[in-house]
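Please predict the structure of the following assembly.
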Amino acid sequence: MPELLEVKNLSVSFFTPAGEVQAVRNVSFSLKAGEVLALVGESGCGKSALCRSIMKLLPGTARIKSGSILANGADITHYGERDMKKLRGRLFAMVLQDPMTALNPTMTVGAQIAEAVRVHRPRISRAALRDRTAELMELVGIDRPRERMERYPHQFSGGMRQRAVLAAALAGDPAILFADEPTTALDVTVQAQILDLFRDLQRRLGTAAVFVTHDLGVVARVADRVAVMYAGKIVETGTVEEVFYDPRHPYTWGLLRALPALAGGRDSLYAIPGMPPTLVNPPKGDAFACRNEYALAIDYEEEPPMFPVTDTHSAATWLLDPRAPKIAPPAGGGAVGR
Amino acid sequence: MAGEVLLDAQGLAHAFPLTRTMSVKALDGLSFQIRRGEVYGLVGESGCGKSTAARCVMNLLRPQAGRVLYRGIDTCDPKAFRANRRMLQRNRQLIFQDSAASLDPRMRVGDIIAEPLRLQRVTPPRGTCRDEAAFQMKYVGLDPGYLDKYPGELSGGQRQRVAIARALAMEPELLVADEPIASLDVSIQAQIVNLFKHLQAEHGFSFLFIAHDLAMVEFLCSRVGVMYRGRLVEEAPARELFARPLHPYTRALVSAIPIPDPRRERARKPVEFRGGELPPGGLWTEASPGHFVLEERGDAP
């Protein structure tokens, strides 16, 4: 199967008065058609910057320093705004965290979805435009679309707004959907509905998706593959089962152990000690070493490469080196949950 | 823990006007009690009135009906409040959800933590206000080297600790926390929740914990009340509530908690809740000792 999106050794930096912030450091991943990849990590680890650099939605202070982005086999790394405009919406679309700020409060919901449709089909007739808008709204599970079209965003609930944003994103039949924390602002009951909608759409339309989140419960529900990011790098990647049941990187262990569902009756939660490093001057060696209770001497000296575990699973930790001491992983193995 | 009742909210009701004829009922006859040394969790969907309840308890908003008794003093009565103002303001402290917005960006961390002491003219128990601030910072796990930083220079978890240190500086009896961890990362959430648990065990203060992360509530709280449309629909000890939810809304809520396990998470079927208004009335019945549920009388369509 051909790769729909392939990112090779991508590095992105923000140039700020405080210095160069290395938000994305040497990241490689690929996405096949119809696949859902979850990017997991703490805030500031570069997951949003990675998505935005692929869509070229970064502010002027940011620059792609090295690496390449291949979409459908074409190198889009140095595409300018005019070329990108042709791709956005058709090749990839984006759903943001907060649907209230993504929608224009002074326009009806229908008009905003219609606007997205018209961008892709400028010559569409008025009646066909209404039909297409209603069809999109129905697709994302909004009942009575013809009536709801005339409503304003503030008359919609949070879940409905996120559905409307999704409808606008799907207007150009994108091959890849970037979803940046799409359910973080929603209630748990609504979150479950939206996640199921995502999975359902992805199955019916065959849309590939990159799902940015910090909630491992969300990952468990929607993702086919997982990439764990830390300090601008992907530290572990694998299928969802491999990462949850056989995690190899100490940071993934920490994330899994911090969940209250996995506390197993203990009266304190595991907390990863310390803070993530600043990306202005990333530390020498493994960026996670100073928070890692399993750190080896080499972690402070040399950055670990990606060690393959299986064909689809690999992790960047010296613990996987054949010379490293064997450690029983404190998390994973399927003995989780309530 | 059958301690004395510290806080007693009785029949709180408040409606916010939308237009001349319409209003939103944020609280609709909400009653709950917090005993001394108890961690009480209040959960519910956004817009169900959790924060309004917290604001009523803290006297930031006067409810249109009902009263809040704190140690038997009716805090909603201006006269009783004035007579006990110092005690009430000292003994009850609030932690807001968004510490980026609730801390003054132009004040240094040390001044923020010591400000309540200055306002209440409390003699700092550890020498100067600065010493006291440094002590509280160490207590919540912050390096006192941050004393002269501004909130904008701190990370989300550190700022939340500053907000906690500020609340603890008054050595309160009742701590009200309105979604204190919602804006934080998973690993930082764990740090803050551990801190709450540790402080609570050491200080023995009572705690009203408002959240929508049910897994954290189950972990931290001893008793939990579930709110829906301004009313309490179920109340029980935390373990009991999550093991045997009775009200249909609680069932939907508990079944929607994501499980960080792909196989089980994908097999999970969330219970649907039909939503809409609760029928008026309803019976507050005790299903088992300490486990209360709002039962609808008859089956109204």
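The interface with chain B takes residues 42-43, 158, 187-193, 214-221, 223, 240-241, 244-245, 254-256, 258-263, 267-272, 275, 334, 336-338 of chain A (CB under 8 Å). Chain A has eleven helices and twelve strands.
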